[in-house]
Amino acid sequence: MLKSVKTGLGLACVLAVMAGCSSNDTKTDGQVEVDEPVTETAVETTDFETTEPAVPLENVVYFDFDQSLLKPQTRELLIRHADRMRAATGSVRLEGHADELGTREYNLALGERRANAVRDFLVLQGVDAANLEVISYGEERPAQMGSNESARTMNRRVVIN
Amino acid sequence: MIKSLLKTVVIIAIASVSLGARAQLVVDITSGIDDPTPIAVSPFGWSGGGVLAEDISGIISSDLRRSGLFSPVPKEDMLSFPKTPEGVVFRDWRILGTEYIVTGRIEPQSTGYLLTFDLVNVFGQHKMFTKQVRGGQTQLRDIAHRAADEIFEAITGIRGAFSTEMVYVQEETRGGKPSYLLMRSDIDGARAKQIRRFSAPVMSPMWSPSGQELAYVSFETGRPAIFRENLRTGARKQLTNFKGINSSPTWSPDGTKLAMVLSKDGNPEIYVLDLVSNKLTRMTRHFSIDTEPNWMPDGKSLVFTSDRGGKPQIYQLTLASGQVDRLTFDGDYNARPRVSPDGKTLVMVHRNRGVFTIATMDINSGRVRVLTETTLDESPSIAPNGAMLMYATKRGDKGILAAVSLDAGVKYNLPSQRGDVREPAWSPYFE
To answer: Do B150 and B177 belong to one domain?
Structure first.
């Protein structure tokens, strides 16, 4: 009984974000409170009941060269991550990376700055900072090998683990 | 007369913690000065039995050629192979345009070899010196490099650095899994050997001023941490384990301190760790990235990279006062400074029309000079004599090491036959 309510709530959260609503900032702990809109949306979308419990979110966000500014689409994605993190327990690792351009030690700092930007945004969304661990690999662990712009685009990133 | 000119140089064995020979780096000279000095290293005599394991005169020729300042005469062009100054027929060498001749004799000794070699000036028709170098059974290459140092200095007035070494990082992938090797080799790339193998990234190797220790950053604990390692004994110690970045260790000129970068207080700042008292002092206070410290030769200030002005530029921090002055103004990306031994020249990574090159800057005048024309050049490291620097670049997608003289006249590549190589660190002199 309780389980099915939880699933419904999770789905409702995803749907709420998809619809562009801002999430409510009440923290869900063990006790589940069922509001009207939650049950309403859950009932409306019968086809989603087979996908279980929620579609995995893209866990990599990308940056421009020598930048740690979050792009608009990154912010949307991070809001969805924040919703999940508030509901979950356990810590999350934010791995900052840089492309091969520029010096290695500076890129180590740049990777950390990017991961910090993601952390700060998540904290603003109500995620407990104590659950977020930042680590930078700089340019030492590229996602894609190769000295070309498409590889560099994929390497300027923060991985949410 | 001859006796007074006779000087014996004894090579002290440097024990290494090597784990077998590795793939070597092959020298490929891409440019030299327009008018290199013609010199002939006549094949040396050998009074022992069998054949020597190394071609000593050949190694000396290669060293001199790699400096870019000399054009050694090929063996095939020599009309005779004199072993002593008395055997030199000056007319034969003048025809070839040879300005200097080196003659030499190698003798077996109970524990190794003794090389006696002479430097002869062809046009002046006189002997400049006779010297001796002694070395152990495994030190034939050391004997050759030491002799090359002596010849180089006698002719150019610049101390030779052929006997120095380098460390670098080599990345290999086996079965889809990367390995990171901390490597050590002669400065010509020969005798490359593994110091240590890691399964997580290793970076920023730096020599201690004595040449006996390294400091580097390893991710083996799951996050970047600074280690120091004794090359003689293999003893290793983790120096830092702070939250966040622990990076860019660099020894003070007197070897008693280590400047480093820590982000434990929120963002990357420069710290100095006193290796005697273990006292850690924070040197910078700024919300920007402060990183890549390097000491001025007098030990009184540090140069470092900061983006406090919006873009990475190089600054100087006076330790006593804490005063910070910006040094670079030319271009929108200047980073990873290294200071020449005389403290007059800054070597750095400089973005020039969108590409990353190695450049020098005269600290007094601020004049910048681009030394390299490849596009992904980084990690410059200066020779202890200040004549050349080694750096990392890419050939295709492969990381290689290359060298350039500080006046940009001489260039050569040291491509690795295996894996990607990067982050060369030129050793100090081994006294």
So the answer is: no
Rounded to whole angstroms, how far apart are CA atoms A51 and B223? 37
**Residue B395 domain boundaries:** 165-426
**Share of residues in chain B with pLDDT > 70 (%):** 94
The CATH number of the domain holding residue B407 is: 2.120.10.30
- Per cent of chain B over pLDDT 90 is 86
B136 lies in the same domain as B202: no
How large is the average pLDDT for residues A33-48? 43
Q: Are residues B146 and B173 in the same domain?
A: no
Cβ within 8 Å, pair A104-B379: yes
Last residue of a domain, one of B122, B139, B156: B156
Nearest-neighbour CA in chain B from A42: distance (Å): 42
Of A100, A105, A146, the CB nearest to B291: A105
The count of domains in chain B is: 2
- Superfamily name and number for A60-160: OmpA-like domain (3.30.1330.60)
DSSP one-letter string for A99-135? -SSS-HHHHHHHHHHHHHHHHHHHHHTT--GGGEEEE
Cβ–Cβ contact A101 with B under 8 A? yes
Query: Would residue B280 count as lying in a domain?
Result: yes
Q: Does A109 touch chain B (CB under 8 A)?
A: yes
Residues β-bridged to residue B350: B334, B357
Asked if A103 and B261 come within 8 Å (Cβ–Cβ), the reply is no
- When pLDDT is cut at 50, 70 and 90, the band that residue B354 belongs to is confident
Q: How far is A116 from chain B (nearest CA, A)?
A: 9
- Could you say which of B133, B156, B179 is where a domain stops? B156
Say whether both B264 and B327 belong to one domain.
yes
Q: Does B431 fall in a domain?
A: no
Which residues of B lie inside 8 Å of A (Cβ-Cβ)? 201, 203-204, 219, 222-224, 244-245, 247-248, 261, 263, 267-268, 289, 291-292, 305, 311-312, 333, 335-336, 349, 356, 376, 378-379, 394, 396-397, 423
d(C-alpha B324, C-alpha B285), whole Å: 11
Give yes or no: residues B233 and B108 share one domain: no
Residue B305 to residue A136, Cβ atoms within 8 A: no
With cut-offs at 50, 70 and 90, classify the pLDDT of residue A27. very low
- Chain A residues 118-137 with a CB less than 8 Å from chain B: 134-137
Pairing of strands B257-262, B368-370: unpaired
Tokens encoding B154: 């006698």
- For residue B9, tell me if it sits in a domain: no
Residue pair B88/B124 in contact by the 8 Å Cβ criterion: no
CB B151 within 8 A of CB B120: no
| A105 to B292: CB separation less than 8 angstroms, yes or no | yes
Residue B19 in domain: no
Whether pLDDT at A44 is above 90: no
Same domain, B234 and B327: yes
User: DSSP readout, B340-392?
Assistant: -TTS-EEEEEEEETTEEEEEEEETTT--EEE---SSB-EEEEE-TTSSEEEEE
On whether both B291 and B257 belong to a single domain, the answer is: yes
Q: What is the mean pLDDT of the segment spanning B299-309?
A: 98
Structural domain boundaries of chain A? 2-50, 60-160
> Which of B14-23, B88-97, B218-227 is the least confident region?
B14-23
